[in-house]
């Protein structure tokens, strides 16, 4: 596939199907062996993508894996039909760089299949570092390659079988231009002197350990900020945990078992009996009427908890307080944060970078709230390194951050 039209005035060429047509799904061992052999015989970087069913299933597993390589073509692999027995694919993908778009979304489910890239190029992250304001795959393809990708099935239920042909066409197109896009972005990064930065970012992303489980994940229930007392929070927790158990058991997205809004409404209303519960929105529906006893038991369990077992309305936080409270709690820290933000904003503008890609905002806040005892270049660099900053970030942001911390001391 050749590139075309790389300017804002060029009308993008619609790309409605892969150049070689939409391939059949790889769903048996023989087809997988043939696909793996073709991929291994191909040349150059390997485009990889996945499709999940996040809005439908509890699991975040991959229901389809798309692979494309020059000289091999595109393959749509169904790990479910293969019972996740994909050893030939694991071997075939182990030899060269992978190209993904927004890799952090795909790497965890690929790792569940024991698919791990030996090297990585993330086209979304590359776009951010190159200074593009919009970095969706379709947007970057239009701007840099001159093609228009039809979108629309990314949020579909990819656990459905058989998968409709238009969905498969969409999935194949997602990897059709990833390698040409990678090459265009590498050229752009190189011209800006940012390629080494990007390579360091890709490697950090590739080697990042799995995210630890969230502490008290029920506190992320949408609307929980409106529940201000411990007993109400206990009700939210009880309903959330009951819902989570049911969702996990049935492999259904939790929001499809019971929406967050219903959890918050029940915690606020504190219904005395089943009749009162069924008067609440959502609980009036047929599905929730069948489950009313389950939800009521969760609420009663929360209502009977002793005070010692109630959740803390203000749980301890291992980080600094919200920045809007700094002026009252520690005016010096507030001054440091203001100076640091100004310095980093100027740096971002000078290098056409999103400020959050220069340094993670949380790391900036932590460093300003509790700076090194000795505010010098070496100490600040050490604090940034301990907080997970990459070497290019430390070299770029360390000196102006050090000056900002000194100036506001």
UniProtKB/TrEMBL annotation:
Q: Where is this region: Disordered?
A: 304-329
Instruction: Name its species.
Output: Actinokineospora guangxiensis
What the entry lists under PANTHER family is as follows: RIBONUCLEASE D (PTHR47649)
Q: Which domain of life is it from?
A: Bacteria
Q: Which InterPro entries match?
A: 3'-5'_exonuclease_dom (IPR002562), Exo_C (IPR041605), HRDC-like_sf (IPR010997), HRDC_dom (IPR002121), HRDC_dom_sf (IPR044876), RNase_D-like (IPR051086), RNaseH-like_sf (IPR012337), RNaseH_sf (IPR036397)
Q: What is this protein called?
A: HRDC domain-containing protein
Q: Pfam families annotated for this entry? A: DNA_pol_A_exo1, DNA_pol_A_exoN, HRDC
Q: Which intervals carry biased composition (Pro residues)?
A: 312-324
All copies of the HRDC domain together span: 229-309
